[in-house]
Amino acid sequence: MQQDSTPAFPIYPVGRALLGLLFLISGILKISSFSGVAAWMASAGLPFASVALVLAILVEIGGGLLLVVGWQARIAAAVLALFLIPVTLIFHGFWSADAANAQNQLNHFLKNVAIFGGMLMVFAVETSAAASRKA
């Protein structure tokens, strides 16, 4: 492992930033269609959907920005990974979807699982880089 804070792979910051853009854009789009997204969240049975939506926007925009710029990326990746767990289970339950929507929900479920894996990779790389800076 390198002795500076740069990960061993120079393409890593590009991948981290692209993962961050996904959340950043998603958060911004939620602001632009706040009432529609809140209604959709409420229809999924989420109590206090508007409050939950504000929190989701803060997590997505804040975490996305941190990943894009690379500051506190380890914490951002951990928060976003934890955020993805209930989001995926609540909104992409392919197991309870009707036949017409099951495949679409499975695709979204698997996409979120893959993004979760990306967050774990960012967390691991950032943890390793932090350990090498302390050494």
Short overview:
This protein has 135 residues and is mainly α. The protein has helices spanning 12-32, 34-43, 49-69, 73-91, 99-134. The protein contains five helices and no strands.
Characteristics:
transmembrane, 135 residues, transmembrane helix, cell membrane, membrane, Inner membrane protein YphA
Descriptive notes:
There is one protein chain. Helix 2 (34-43) crosses helix 3 (49-69). The N and C termini lie close together (11 Å). This protein has 135 residues and is mainly α. The longest helix is centred in the last third of the chain and has 36 residues, at 99-134. The chain has one domain (12-134). The chain has helices at residues 12-32, 34-43, 49-69, 73-91, 99-134. It contains five helices and no strands. The radius of gyration is 17 Å and the shape is globular.
Q: How would the blueprint of this fold be written?
A:
Blueprint: H1 12-32, H2 34-43, H3 49-69, H4 73-91, H5 99-134
Helix pairs in contact: 1-3, 2-3, 3-4, 4-5
Low-confidence stretches: none
Q: What's the number of domains? A: 1
**Counted beta strands:** 0
Shape: globular
* First-residue to last-residue Cα separation: 11 Å
- Please describe the biggest sheet, giving its number of strands, its sense, and whether it closes into a barrel: none
